[in-house]
Amino acid sequence: MNNLLPISSQTATNGQLTIGGISVETLATTYGTPLYVLDHATIAHQVTLYQQGLAEVSPNYLISYACKANLTTGLAHQLNDLGVGFDVVSSGELKTVLKAGVSSNNIVFHGNNKLKPELAFAIENNIRIVVDNQSELEKIHEICTSLQKKASILLRLKPGVDTNTHAYIKTGQADSKFGIDDIYLDQIAEYIRAHSTLNFLGIHAHIGSQITELLPYLELVDVMSHYLKKFQFNYQLPVKELDLGGGFGVAYTKSDAIPNITDYLQKMVSKLILKCKETQVELPKIIVEPGRSLIAQSGVTLYRVGTIKEIPNIKTFVFVDGGMADNMRPALYQSKYTFEVGNRMTTPKTKTYSIAGKYCETGDILAENVPLPEISQEDIIVVAVTGAYNYAMASTYNRVGRPAMVMIKDGKIIELLKRETDEDLLRLDTGD
Ligand SMILES: Cc1ncc(COP(=O)(O)O)c(C=O)c1O
Q1: CA-closest residue to ligand 1 atom 7
Q2: Known catalytic residue at 67
Q3: pLDDT tens-digit profile of 160-207?
Q4: What span, in angstroms and rounded, lies between the C-alpha atoms of 271 and 222?
Q5: Does the predicted model carry a pTM greater than 0.85?
Q6: Domain architecture of the chain: domains with CATH
Q7: Counting atoms of ligand 1 from 1, which one is nearest the CA of 69?
Q8: Does the beta carbon of 40 lie inside 6 Å of ligand 1?
């Protein structure tokens, strides 16, 4: 079995891929395609890896799922039941997790340009806010004054740690749009001390996404330890919560090497504990914000094959009924994926295909040169590791509705999202 598929996947004797005992043919026939499928067992497994990694070194922690990776109300509900918190970046995400019953104490609100109504909604609901810049701090103070409330805040710092990941998903380097530059910290600390509307909880940094090495995280601990000391002793603002961000990478293909999550957390936190002892700073509550690494591998996308088009001596295209609008990562980041034919799992991969979508763009190619069994129309193409940043980044390009999403849990199907229909798309149009 390909280990990049969800952990409850198996191959039945008729060559059908099953997830939690349910065949992909049944899922595709019942819910249509393209279809996002999430495996609860895989998500629970990933959450456990994080919990084990943190619990052994520091019992005071919060795993805050970066729900930009994938979010529906039902998914938030399931994750809440697994004991994770949520990192949100908009009022839409915030309202979704509140609707799912998540406690405000387990929510962290991010963003480099939060709108005033979003800030007001967060303050009214006692949500922790991670402040990105001084002007946001001033807006928060004004809103608190008019609402007669206090806001609990963390400061997003720019740690200056560069990472070996795609330029579009780096965030910690000096020229990043995110975070507060060191030169502004003195005045920001003074502003916080001078305004009783601001309840200082701590500091945050996030160095990027799809990071596959430990070294940048260890560098991050060095930088943040320096700031723990500076906030406590220079600014008299002791850090109660230290948010180390997310970004831990996942394997999309068999050649991707990923360090072990539990091991990485233990190394990172052990180093932090040591640094805190050295500098006589009390170890704060540790927050981590994994998105991709909690959810990516739990997800597969199912497509039906519509047409097979051979260009003699060049390539053979397989056209599927989705593409760049439900998975924009290959077009955006040149991301690679792993493909299977869900109804031919036991057939040898003797052919090579290019998998293209149905959208009117030459760049709507999910992958080139994929070894697969000989394909026929109506076969089911399965794309592994599509649980993160696929539905979340989906668009209605070409006025095609977004796919449905289901979760498999204990051998049962939970519907998370209905397919968006043509009528849904017409509903918001105004004018004749
Ligand atoms: C502030 C913040 N935290 C956490 C994450 C989650 O990153 P990932 O999904 O790579 O774990 C992101 C995503 O870029 C982010 O911007």
Answers
A1: 247
A2: no
A3: 887 666 665 556 567 788 999 999 999 999 999 999 999 999 999 999
A4: 8
A5: yes
A6: 9-39+297-427 (2.40.37.10), 110-290 (3.20.20.10)
A7: 9
A8: no
